[in-house]
Design brief:
The complex is a heterodimer of chains A (about 130) and B (about 130). Chain A is an all-alpha fold and about 130 residues long. Helix content of chain A is about 85%, strand content about 0%. By secondary structure, chain B is mainly α. Classes of the chains: A mainly alpha (about 130), B mainly alpha (about 130).
Chain lengths: ~130, ~130
C-alpha cells in the first residue's frame, strides 16, 4: 500500500487521471463483455474493436507523461553541477517511469477482453453459421 | 530458463501463469480447428488466445520498465565508479522480462491469429 502511494507521489499529477482512465476502461471492458454475452444480437465485434482501440490510450498517455516529465528534468539538469547530473537524471528517470508502468497495466484488461470479444463476434457472424 | 525467470522477477510469474493457462487453450483450439463442426468454438478460443498473447506481451513490457526503474533508482544512490556496471546488470535483468514475454506471448498471439485466418480460409473454401 505504501509503495503504491509512493509511486503515485513519484509519478506526478498525471498519475491520477491515468489511474482513472485505467479503472474506467476496466469497468467498461467488463460491462461490454457482459452485455455482449447477454445480448441476442451480435454486438461483440464492434465492442471488441472499440475496446482494442481504447486499450491504446493508457500506454500512450503513460509514455507521453514520462516524456513530459523527462523534458522538464532535462531543462533543469543543465543548471546542476556535472557530478550530480547522472544521479539526478537516474532518480528522475526512475520516478517518471511510474506513469509508463501504470499505462501498461491499464491496457491489460481491455486487451484481453477486446480480443476475446473479437473472437466471439467473429464466431457469431452469419458466414460461420452452419 | 530458470535463470531467465529468476532474473525477470515478479512479472515472470504472472507471465508463466498466463502460459499455464494459454497452453491448454492453444491445444484445445488447434484440436477444435481441425475438427469439421467446431469452427465457431475455435474462433472464440482464438480470440481468447490473442488476448492472452497480447496481455503477456504487455506484461513483458511492463516488467522491463519496472526493472529499469529499479536499476535507475539503484544507480542514483551508487558511487560514480559503480554506476556503469550496475546499469548494465540492471538492464540485462530487465530485458529478461521482454524475452520471456515475447517467448510466451508471441506464439500464443500468432497461433490465435493463425486460427482466425484458418477459419476464414475454410469458410471461403466452403462457400
Amino acid at each position: 500500500m505504501n509503495s503504491l502511494a509512493q509511486s503515485f507521489n513519484e509519478g506526478g499529477p498525471l498519475m491520477y487521471p491515468l489511474a482513472l482512465v485505467a479503472c474506467a476502461l476496466a469497468v467498461t471492458a467488463l460491462t461490454l463483455t457482459i452485455l455482449a454475452l447477454a445480448s441476442k444480437k451480435n454486438p461483440a465485434l464492434p465492442f471488441g474493436v472499440a475496446l482494442l482501440i481504447a486499450a491504446i490510450i493508457p500506454p500512450a498517455v503513460g509514455l507521453l507523461a514520462e516524456r513530459m516529465s523527462m523534458a522538464s528534468v532535462e531543462k533543469a539538469i543543465v543548471q546542476v553541477s556535472a557530478s550530480d547530473r547522472a544521479a539526478l537524471f537516474a532518480a528522475a528517470k526512475s520516478e517518471a517511469m511510474n506513469t509508463t508502468v501504470l499505462g501498461f497495466g491499464g491496457a491489460l484488461c481491455p486487451t484481453v477482453l477486446g480480443f476475446a470479444l473479437l473472437g466471439l463476434g467473429l464466431s457469431k457472424l452469419e458466414r460461420f453459421k452452419r | 530458463m530458470t535463470e531467465l525467470v529468476h532474473s525477470a522477477g515478479v512479472t515472470a510469474y504472472l507471465i508463466l501463469l498466463i502460459a499455464g493457462l494459454g497452453v491448454p487453450i492453444a491445444i484445445a483450439t488447434v484440436v477444435l480447428t481441425l475438427r469439421p463442426k467446431t469452427l465457431r468454438v475455435s474462433l472464440i478460443l482464438a480470440g481468447v488466445l490473442l488476448g492472452l498473447g497480447g496481455a503477456t506481451l504487455l506484461l513483458g513490457a511492463q516488467g522491463r520498465v519496472l526493472g529499469r526503474m529499479a536499476s535507475y533508482r539503484a544507480v542514483a544512490q551508487a558511487p560514480d565508479e559503480a554506476r556503469e556496471a550496475l546499469l548494465a546488470e540492471g538492464f540485462e535483468e530487465s530485458s529478461a522480462n521482454t524475452t520471456l514475454g515475447g517467448m510466451v506471448g508471441g506464439p500464443l498471439a500468432l497461433l490465435g491469429a493463425a486460427v482466425l485466418a484458418a477459419g476464414f480460409a475454410r469458410r471461403q473454401g466452403a462457400s
